[in-house]
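Deliverable D4.2, example record:
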Amino acid sequence: MKSLFACFLFAVGSCASGDAIIKVKGSDTEVNLAVQFAESFHEVNETSIVSISGGGSGLGIASLINGNADIANSSRRINDEELELFKKKKIVLDSFVFAQDAIAFVVAKDLKLDTISTIDLAKVLSGVYKNWEALTDKKVQINIYGRQNNSGTHDFVKQRLSIDFTPYAKQMNGNAQIIEAIKTDHSGIGYVGAGYVGHGANTEIKVLYIKDGVVKRPVSPLDATSIVAGLYFFQRPLFQYYRRSSISKIKAFLQFENSDQGQQIIRTAGYYPFK
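Output generated by the structure prediction step:
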């Protein structure tokens, strides 16, 4: 869908000036959802064009600072250093939480592991456990597929587990690349936005249940009822940051995201409304 929309934008982009195009950049987790929003928004606002690109939360926020984006998608809260850069440029910043996401930890279908505790997961991702023997019946090396340090998902997992990732963790460009790696690496583990693995789209991988010290039963990131109840350990809000001075340009798009139609798009895309 992403590539089709890119072609669509190229075909009609000449009909709109650069100033008329709403540029959305940032979180790879939010890309698929943002593309669906952009396509549906154009159907009801034919004169409006929304350009979507990923690259990570950090890139989106940097693009907003530099004036190369109208909206920065971010799967984490903006940090103090970034806020200081906005302050130095005298840019007044606003934000909008338009959905929530759950991080899914995925392994190959044939790995004999269905549930993992947050304690064991921290040991896996930090490199304390170097093979699967402690958690399965196989003494095979654990291969970790994660994101770069400019990724909001990388930061969120790191902070949620209070760990530093092992330096041997592979840094991938995005969710889709992680999923493809896990399909072929039967001793791998990766983390992606739940929207990338919902609706049974990836039958060659397995989404692990997570057990923490508070909720007594293991919880799946695909369990909408548990997400609404706030029971999943790795659920988070998805942010959009923008310059207050740009509100007249982007207001209709933000309102569309928050409309009943927008909320339905969030659900069908495998994410969760924030309301």
